[in-house]
Please model this.
Amino acid sequence: NQEIKKNYTVNVVKLSLFELIYKIVSNRKIIKLINIQYPSIGFSTNKIAAFKPHVAFILAKLVGLKTSITLHEFSSLSKRAQYFLKIFKLADYIIFTTQYEKNIGEKTLFNSAKTRLIPIASNIPSCQKKEKKFDLVHFGIISKGKGIEEFIWIIKELNKKNIKFRSALIGYVPGADNSYANLIIEQCTEQKCELLLNKSAAEISNLLAETDMAILPYPDGISERRGTALAAMINRVLVFSLRGQFSSEFENIAVLGNDKNDLLSKVLYYINNTDSFAKINDSAYEYSEKRNWQSIA
Model:
């Protein structure tokens, strides 16, 4: 719970569907607004998880609660997923995390009078830089579409070249379907990449403070919605990622490649020329400092 105004308290809950229903019904007289995050973790592999936000929304409307929906990566959702979002047109507010997503949402589905923009910040705090433990890491939720395969490929190529380095995958394993995570864990083990799973935000911050490079090759390119990149930058970890449609503002604050081969060549260059990227690291830190939750609030 976090008190944000006099007589107002924010409750962040992660519950099963039945517990959520009970929470809404039993507290309906004191809840001022319910915000629903969509999609939920595991939505692509679990039908119950996919429609949990819809059930919560319908119930909230039935008991007369004010509602807001935070839509993540709206433009990346399938047509079928976007079709089932139509019910959210009844919400009081539709929240997007980037201007681009907001523009797309207004053009295709939602009334601009209801839309709001709240940028993504990182939940990972800043930590004072420490003695290096890892040369390169990847971190975040272990799921498809995060560039983890490309990260492992880069490690494999470095191993082929007999380069001495220490790597780690700092990951959160979602509970819905572990088959993908198990495959990634197996591949990391084969490449002698250390596995640091389900760590707290404070623990992740400390691990990043001991790291040189974060290899984050998002398939659609780095953009303002990538909180993991911001977390790396605020902890002075040099970010290596791919160019995408919305990467222009990252040209001077991250090391960008056009594909995984290009990115590998830049990782190799950095290993032999670490001091040449100091300016990028400083600029990245300044950028991330302006994009914390306090500034957004």
